[in-house]
Every structure is written in structure tokens, then in C-alpha cells.
Model the fold of this input.
Amino acid sequence: MYQYDQYDQNLVDTRVAEFRDQVERRLSGELSEDQFKPLRLMNGLYLQLHAYMLRVAIPYGTLDSRQMRMLGHIARNYDRGYGHFTTRQNLQFNWIKLEDTPDILAELATVEMHAIQTSGNCIRNISSDQFAGAAADEITDPRPWAELLRQWSSFHPEFSYLPRKFKIAVIAAKEDRAAMRLHDIGIEIVERDGAHGARVFVGGGMGRTPMIATEIAEFVPLSDLLSYLEACLRVYNRYGRRDNIYKARIKILVHEIGADEYRRQVEEEFVAVKALGIDPPAAEFERIKAFFAPPAFAGDAPDTLDRSDPDFAVWLDQNVKQHKQPGHAIATISLKPAGGIPGDASADQIDLMADLAQRYSFDELRVTHAQNIVLPHVRKADLYAVWQALHEAGLAEANLDLISDIIACPGLDYCSLANARSIPVAQKIAERFADLDRQRELGELKLKISGCINACGHHHAGHIGILGVDKKGLENYQLSFGGSGAEDVSLAKITGPGFSEDGVVDAVEKATDVYLAHREQGERFVDTYRRIGMEPFKEAIYGPA
Amino acid sequence: MKILTGNDLKTGDVVWWTGSGWSRHVEDSADVGEAGEALARQEEAARRVNVPYVIDATATPEGPRPAHIKDRVRALGPTIRPDLTLKPADPSAGNWVI
Ligand code: HEM
Ligand code: SF4
Done:
């Protein structure tokens, strides 16, 4: 795990002191809200429906038990006893008091955490594969590169006021666990003739105009990566539309001028940037990489497991994935208990997850873009003990990637931009499919819900997507099928007219019936949909045309 | 009727204009009629509340009820966590929003 040097620590500490002063001036009335708002947003502090909301950055979703415990401490002492893990691998606190915020940021700074660049038109938290460093299928750990990008993008003066917010994801495996091609820039580290390089995809994103990123470069030598990205951002910064917020993202620029023209300009700019020498020397990259060295795995950890407890066996099959190191495994803790709030964890649960990481996972945790938590390096021999502890805390739901493992944005229960509630819909669907055997029979089914067109809940990328809209003052839900944020990336298509809250739950159930009636051996819901098309689903949901 | 709402500067709490000050309870709201916009500007200038705005509401025996669901959620609290609402003891409080 990356550790701050004195330079990093000073930056963060200085920012806390600066913000303390700004908050004091706001509370004394010296600053108006119009003056203060951009300052608080630079520190991740929003004003939502019921309170201030603080978004804490978790770089590429990786944190240690000390940091996790700090999140629990803040939840318990400054919030209402819980935190909300988000699809951008961050954490949000929903009930923050303005006057407490400087203290919270100061406490976060003691464990190398902050809320800088979690808001605003800058390069946001770099996201990555939650299984990085552990996955059996990765060619390298993508996080040293993500960390390099974090350092490059933090306080980058030229990219602090981009036309719009900017999101970058880095992966290094064929299986895309980070929705890489739905980011402004997606980077896939690949191998060619024994060397590693970056495939660069530009112009993906969800929101009002969803788009899949286009491949702009098939192999950028990693020694050129920062220069290449600098060139990508410069072209965007120069030509991105600042006149219209809905057309300001890089996806619109790439779409309007065309990928070839964008690529041409980037390559031209790259020649100029490369001459500036911003790429770090190999020694600096090696320094960063050393922080991500694999933990001291036991070479002789047994590879066998006692599966005699049937509930444990189900959890193993559903939530535990293969590790690159024999005798070890990757365990995902589902934050989607039946009827619960996707992504929420209580302070006690946060502490427990921190304890388990410390004891059984070489002190590491990950936040996933599906709002779950990962213990990346658990010895197989310890899995049963981990599971028992999770089970006692209500965290052993064996539903990873099943229909109840729903991504849901905060929606109208918390978010001031929302048109409809998301969480109650997620709860009703999870309750409807509460029977785990039934869920497992349905297999992998990614269901995602957003409470407005901004698409924080990734509904465009859901095998089943649900979007809340406002229809004459009533909550209405549009249903869509066929999206994917994984390596088979695609955008979902709307089925037809929207539904009431209960209506959309019924429609989802009818859709799963159509799938069961039509599926062929080995097909997931989304595969059957892709093969048979929308019509049979439409007919079941809306009746014969 | 028209009522005035905003968020408290210090806590971010949702607050309602009572005619002489701010309350956390929508039932205490006063009908501001046509004076709302001026009041909002005045309170904003005094820097006690953030982004005050005027909304439509209906008078009911229990007090004013905001016309739009968003302001009903604001008035109550998150519908999915009754324990975090202003009516934690009332299990049916969520129905008030819909
Ligand atoms: C509650 C406060 C939040 C606010 C005010 C907010 C605001 C927004 C806005 C305005 C956009 C559209 C951006 C654009 O197209 O330029 C957006 C997109 C997004 N937000 Fe949020 N959001 C919030 C919470 C969340 C949460 C809790 C998550 C994760 C669960 C999240 C993840 C995302 C994602 C993944 C997108 C899509 C980005 C894309 O276009 O690729 N946001 N958000
Ligand atoms: S999708 Fe809309 S409602 Fe949901 S969190 Fe994002 S901005 Fe809020």
C-alpha cells in the first residue's frame, strides 16, 4: 500500500488548516454561501437533502485496517453511525455538520486520507480492479500505475478546471472489474513482446449521454504514459465544450470531432509534451511499485478446504474467487443483505471488516465499484473463521453478482439532484428474490438503479437497469436490458414506458421468467437477451402488442 | 399556501420559516404568501441558512404539507431509515412522503 512521504503529508495537512480557516469565515458570516460553495466542494463537502455530505477519497479502492477503522470512528462520532460505499470506490458520510468538518478532515489526515478532488471539474479518484495484486488473471498489479496517476493528477494546476469532471480507471486483466470503458479514460495494461504497455480508451461515460470509450492507442509504452495522458487531457482542456454543461465531457468532444481527429491531435501534442520530461525516471516508478509488493504469503499454505458446513460452502462458491497465490483466496463481503441499503455499513461493521483484514488479509481491504468490500488475501485455511465472523455481523450474504447484489445510488432519500428514490426499489427487488436458491438458479445478473439521469448507479451498464424519473410529480421507473460494464461492455436499451415502484419489481420478475424459459446451456440473463432480443421480454412485460 | 425552506448553515438540517425564525419541523411553517422571495433574500443575506427557497404546500390538520415529494422527503428524513427521520417512533412515517 502506498504511504505518504513528507511532501504528501504536508499537502494534506496544509489543506486541512486552510479549510478550517474557510469554515470559520463561513460560520462567522464573513463568507457568503456563493463564495464558500466552491471552497467546500474542493474538500468533498456537498450540501444534500438533509445535511452536508462528505465524500472521502479511497485511491483505487485500496485501504488498510487503520484507515478503515478511522472511517468507522468518523461514522460513530461525527455521523449517524454508518457510512456509504460508492460506485467510485469512495465513501460518503451523509450527516455531517459543517462545524465538524475541519476536525474530520484533520482526523482523516492522520491516516493519510482526505477528500481532495472528490468533487469539481478535476481528475477525480483513480479507480481500479478491486482484485488488483491478488487476481489470478492479472498480468501485473495495476495499482502502481494508478498511484502514479494519482500523484500526477493531484493538484495538477492545468487540470484543476477542466470543462467537466474527469474519471480514469486502470486495469491489467482481461476480465474488466472496473468498468474501464465507461470512464473518460480507461487504461488496460497489456503485454507485447514481453513488455508492458497501455491500451488507452477515451470518451466513455454514463450520465445523460452514455458512451463506450473508443480505443485511441493500442500500445503506449509505460515510460510514456504520463506524457500521453497529459496530451489527452490537454486536447480535451483546449476544445472541450465549456458553453454547455451537458456537452462538456470528453465523450462529446471525441464524438463530435471523431476519434481519428482526436487521436491525431493527441499524437501531435504528445510530441511536444514528451520533450518536457514529465514522465518519471524508472527509479521513481520502482519506488512506488515497492509499496505494492506482494505480502509475505506462506509458500506452504494448504490449498484444500473443509466444505462440510453447507452455508459456508454456498458463500465459498458465490463470494470467493481464485487468488494468484496457491493456498489463498479473495473474499468479497457483500454489503447487500436482503432488504438492506446497498453500500451502507454501520460503524461496528466497518470496525469488524477492519479487524478481519488485519487478522486475515495482510491488513488490506478494497472497495468495489459494485459497493462491496473485498478481503484480497485470505489464506484458505482461514476462510471459515472469516465467514463465521461475517455471519455473526450480518455480512455473510452469499449473493455476489446475483440479482440481489444491486448497485443503487442514494436517490431521492439523500441526493438533492434526484427525481425518484432508488433504495426502496432495490430493497423490494431483493425481497422479491430473497430465496438464495432461486437467485443462484438465475445466475449472474447485474441489476443497477439510478435516481436520476446522472447515472451514479450505473443503470446504463446493468444487465437490468432501472432509472428513476419524475412523471408529473410522481416517481416513475424506466426499465432497460442488455447493459454491461465488464469486458463485454454494452449500453442497456429501454424496454418501453416506465412503471410505478411496484410495477417495476413485477416487470423485473417477468423478465427473469422469460430468461428462464429461453436460456440455453451456460447462458446468463444478458446472453439470452442478446440472443433473442427485446421482443419476447417486451411481450411478457407489457402484454402482446 | 407558500412556505419557505432552506438548510441550516451550521448543521445542514432542513429548516422551515415560522414567521419569526427557523424550525426543523415543517408543521411550524408559516404561510409566506407573496413575501417569500424577499424573505429568502433577507435570510440569505443574514447568512443563517443556505439556499432558502419558496415552495407550494397544502394546509392540512397536521400542518402544512409540501406539494412536491422531494420536500416531503426533506421534511421527514430518509424514507428507508425510519430511525433517522424526525418521526422515528412512527413506523408508518414513510407513507407520509408518498
Ligand atoms: C449524493 C450526491 C451525489 C451527487 C450530487 C452526484 C452528482 C453526479 C452528477 C452531477 C453526475 C453527472 C456527471 C456528468 O455527466 O458530468 C454524476 C455521475 C456519476 N456519479 Fe454521482 N453524485 C452523487 C453521488 C454518487 C454516488 C453515491 C455514487 C456511487 C454510488 C456516484 C457515482 C457516480 C457515477 C458512477 C457517475 C457516472 C459517471 C459517468 O458519467 O461516467 N455518485 N453524479
Ligand atoms: S444518479 Fe442522480 S439521484 Fe442518484 S446519486 Fe447520482 S445524482 Fe443523485
The first strand of chain A starts at residue 45 and ends at 47. Residues 142-290 of chain A form a domain with the Sulfite Reductase Hemoprotein; domain 1 fold (CATH 3.30.413.10). The two ends of chain A are 57 Å apart (CA to CA). Chain A touches chain B at residues 26-27, 29, 32-33, 47-52, 80, 95-99, 341, 412-414, 418, 421, 423-424, 427, 473-475 (CB under 8 Å).
